[in-house]
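Appendix B. Chain record.
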Amino acid sequence: MVEPERVKRLNGEPIRAGRYVLYWMQAAQRAFGNPALAFALALARERKLPVVVVFGLTPRYPEANLRHYAFMLGGLREVALTLAERGVRFSLRLGEPPQVALALARDAAALVVDRGYLRHQRAWRAEVAHKAPCAVFQVETEAVVPVELAYPKEAVSAAVLRRRIHPYLPRFLRPLPEGEPPVFAGDLELPGVEVEPKADLLAQLEIDRSVPPLNLRPGTEAARRRLELFISEKLERYHLDRNDPAKDGTSGLSPYLHFGQISPVEVALRVREVGGPGAEAFLEELIVRRELSFNFVLHNPRYDEFAGLPAWAQDTLRRHAGDPRPALYTPEELEEGRTHDSLWNAAQAELRASGKIHGYMRMYWGKQLLLWTQTPEEAFRLGLYLNNKYALDGRDPASYAGVGWCFGLHDRPFPERPVFGKVRPMTGASLRRKFEIRAYLARWERGRDGC
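Structure tokens predicted for this chain:
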């Protein structure tokens, strides 16, 4: 049973007579561990109706490019096959997602949608709720603890959210029963044109092709294999190795979580089974830190602007905007990793070639932009641009919170110094003292030419 706190009624229309229960899938791109699908199946069983899942594929998704579309479509092919095996019809439609959902809502008894936190995602759901002729239910699928239940306003730090989330974990950190549909929907006739998921959709889409796809297998099964590999090889030392760029003790699950290809509850339960200090540190990142980013973008309307940073951080950075910079680089030089700093260049090479930056290096990478751009506002914009363009998990709440942290978000003031003001600084010298950084440098200096 889906916890009632995950479910929100978005309009006042009734559950009516219809041909099917419609699940408009956008955020939770998976066939298992999906509370929105489970809720739709429960509604369908009550009414002895089939379930139809629709996904709206737009070539104009904000800031998305070939790298993102290739990974997403690979995962959706797996979703289509798995849902068919479960007797659930999957319909992939080209078009703006709200219009795709509304077209199939005409014959639906009810419409279920998973939750999105970014501005455009919320606007899509609001449009559908306003125009749909049937009841619309939103189900929270990507947070372990529903976001408003954990904290109903913007949290200033992880410590604030941690105190609120932990008491709820026994209720929400539990397996989701996987229901089956009462009526097979494979042969159901649907209005409009749907696209075969196996088709070469990438060739048909008019999208930004400047960033190449990655050789990374998408989908739920690939995510589960990566999870098991992480548990067997890295989890025990995660609390010791996660910040060391040379060791790369991280899970590699963020792209799968970003596209909703694996349930965060499933990941958390599996890690908790193992236990230990490494598991505790990982669950802090997966639950508290990740859901802090949901809280941020949901409650801060300027999450993607310099003006969305804490007032103290804006003030101190602006007061030091006129401080001399050690160097100024053009956006093109920074994007290509052509600075005097071999550490920063290696991090940018990793981002371009692998679609990620090691977490600790990413903090250094973001903070150095303050030193090499004319204003803190320009540094902030450039950090988001580069991250969202190249990171496979870019354009995510965690992206906006992570870049924001480099500029003081969810942090505290430090002793004042040039350029950074009271924002926490990071230096290349400190990185070299803490870690055996030569292995990281060698790996990504070699890979630079392939970016």
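Further analysis of this model is presented in Appendix C.
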